[in-house]
Amino acid sequence: MCEINLELLNDLSLRIKENKLTLALAESMSAGYFSAIWSMQVYSGDFFKGSIIAFANEVKEDILKVDKALIKEFSAESIPVTEAMAKGLQYLIPSAIQLAITGLAYGCDDPQERAKVGDVFISIGFQGKQTSRSFSYGDDLAADIFIQAFNSSLVLLADVLAASD
């Protein structure tokens, strides 16, 4: 089983706090997993503002204001939808950093689905820019996909913050 990169998580938590930044999340596939981990950080009360769990497309559309046509064109598990989730999040939970995730950790019966099990999409909004990446972890156990995705989000966030220095 995979393990969370605690060293990077702790470093990022401290960096976010010291730079007086704030973080908000919009989660689909991970359904609150990322938020739970961030909330357990020692300094989370100083920077973690909250999250929206948008597992169902209706939540993406109605709460995060993701265009239904975008979901139909690209599918809910895609870079364009993940970016739209991050953009919608900034109006609901104003923060310096918006992190959104979609993907498939296990199979589904949706005939519109284009992603494969293990495909994950992460988008980070920071300083007016979106940085997005797709990852493919194969058809590992869902728990391993969650952990690998969380670690990938940490690396992507570290890269985004480093680029702003």
Automatic annotation (TrEMBL):
**NCBIfam families recorded for this chain?**
PncC_domain
Q: Which Pfam families match?
A: CinA
Give the matching InterPro entries. CinA-like_C, CinA_C
Residues annotated as domain CinA C-terminal: 10-159
The protein, known as: Nicotinamide-nucleotide amidase/nicotinamide-nucleotide amidase
> Which species is the source of this protein?
Sphingobacterium lactis
Source domain of life: Bacteria
Quick one: signal sequence residues? Answer: none
